[in-house]
Amino acid sequence: MKPVILLVAALAGLAGCKREASPKSVATATNQSYAARGVVQAVAPNLRTATIHHQAIPGYMMEMTMDFPLQNTNELSGILPGDEITFTLVVGENDDWIQNLHRVGRPAEPVSNRGSMLHAMIPELKPGDRLPDYELLGEDGKRMRFSDFHGRALVFTFFFTRCPLPDYCPRMNKNFAETQKLLAGKGGAPTNWQLLCISFDPEFDQPEMLRNYAGIYRGTHTDRWWFAAVATNILADMAPRLDLMIMHEGSTISHNLRTVVLDPDGIIFRQFDGNDWTPQQLADALAQAARKSTNP
Amino acid sequence: MTRKNKRPQPRNDVKIFLVIATALSALVAVGSWLAASSGSRREPAPGWLPTKVRTLGEFALTDEAGRTVTRAELNGKIVVVSFLFTSCSLTCPEVTKRMAQIQQLTATNPDVRLLSLTVDPRSDTPLVLARWGARFGADTNRWHFLTGAKPMLYGLIGTSFLAQDCGDPFNSMPGNFIGTERIAVVDSHGRTRQYFDGLRDETPAAVAAEIAQLRREP
Questions:
Q1: For A32-110, which CATH class?
Q2: Which candidate in A14, A119, A259 is best for mutational testing of the B interface (most B CBs within 10 A)?
Q3: Do A118 and B165 touch (CB under 8 A)?
């Protein structure tokens, strides 16, 4: 049925066009031919119709996108959507079609139909899921893993030391500093908690750079707040799982903010998106996560 | 954009010529901008066509005011579409700035709507998008900033506007879409007609010219 619909649509489209041809061309029994040029938008699977965005066809119709039927379907072999073609539009008394198709150009941008295949993607983690035990490079220059912090509730966020935006990395680090104060100064609060800031700019943020940067926010107390960097190949797996988005733009890096609380077993307890959260909320989440008993 | 600078060249002083030429170029640029904004004829738009047929798909998303916006609301409208995530510090403000210029250039066209689709819906809540829109002077009666479930957003972008590739995930906007800096124009029949480079200064005038042309179509 589809070809019929397409054909009807094509004819309906034709009828709706501004026909500037003189009435005698309708009266005459012979077919009228018009040289035309356009870009193929789509080709019907049965090769009987091509959708073409054509330039104005002088004396017949203005520039538009239309479905055109073909009499000889072989004419479409080797022609792909995106190709620029010249063709002849033949208008008879009762029907019309295109012929003499010649490809004259092909777009530089590849036509991608891989589309959704790609985003049969790495699934996002949600609270209750276990974070894979990724490897990081610590501020002391040693390799480390998330599991090094098992037994403590862990909150981690992402940053890079060159980050120029006060609402982003500096704000995260100020919030962490405040959270640390809230937890440390609270009598009766759990003591098994840990803060971790992870740079996604590992080439620039070498251990020494991380230590210097950390000092601004943390001072010299390294026991509860650690800095590290993540290698790009590991980040490529981790970022989609955490919905962390990073885009290198010129000399800077645009990124969203993801702050994740793990319980003492490494299970995601809570995720904070963006920067609309308070140190008190984070401290409360950490304290709650810390109270979750570890599975033996 | 052709520069119609027909002034005869002073032969003796190249520096003076350069100063005059620069001034005239600026005048011509401003002039063609004004000409385009007043709807008169101009050079063909420097846009380009989709490489396959794309139409505005069905969707139900949430705007910056928390209101549900569906495809049906845009039936019969010419729609100008851009892509963003508010954490993006260079590209997205530039593209949004040009969307704001398009908003101004089409202010008298009630049949034109603007859409900006986030690729980071967990961060870009209605509140965050409302702040972003306010920063660029968005008229929220005509310009909607849409967020929602990621599969629906990515599905709409992938179906109606942009291809995806498997390139470096950290060198393009999230979602691996190709050309997120583009501004797309959808005609009143829901067909994606042209793309424009959202990082080019000529784009707002070119989009306005394309819209003027679409409005003349039967």
A1: mainly beta
A2: A119
A3: yes
CA atoms of B101 and B82, how far apart (whole Å) = 13
Which 3 state secondary structure label does DSSP give A252? strand
**Domain A127-291 in this protein, CATH class:** alpha beta
This prediction's pTM: 0.67
Which residues lie across from B166 on neighbouring strands?
none
Helix (H, G, I), strand (E, B) or coil at A144: strand
Q: Is B53 on the interface with A (CB under 8 A)?
A: yes
Using CB atoms, pick whichever of B51, B155, B176 lies closest to residue A111.
B51
Query: Could you give the strand order of the β-sheet that contains A193-199, starting from the edge strand earlier in sequence?
Result: A143-145, A135-138, A225-229, A193-199, A153-159, A258-262, A268-273
Indicate whether this complex's ipTM tops 0.90: no
Distance from CA of B146 to the nearest CA of A (A): 17
Could you tell me the fold of the domain covering B60-216? Glutaredoxin (3.40.30)
**Residue in chain A lying closest to B161 (CA):** A115
- Cβ–Cβ below 8 Å for B170 and A111: no
Chain-chain contact of A114 with B163 (C-beta, under 8 angstroms): yes
Domain boundaries along the sequence of chain A? 32-110, 127-291
Tens of pLDDT, residues B73-113:
999 999 999 999 999 988 999 999 999 999 999 999 999 99
What is the interface size between A and B, counted as CB pairs within 8 Å? 113
Touching check for B107 and chain A: CB below 8 Å? Answer: no
DSSP 8-state symbol, A57? B
The domains of chain B are located at 1-43, 60-216
Any B CB within 8 A of A168 CB: yes
Q: What is the pLDDT of residues A105-114, one digit of tens each?
A: 876 544 443 3
Q: Select the residue of B90, B154, B155 nearest A254 (Cβ to Cβ).
A: B90
Structure tokens at B153: 């957003």
Identity of the residue in B123, B166, B170 whose CB atom sits nearest the CB atom of A274: B123
CA dihedral sign of residues A263, A266, A271, A274: positive
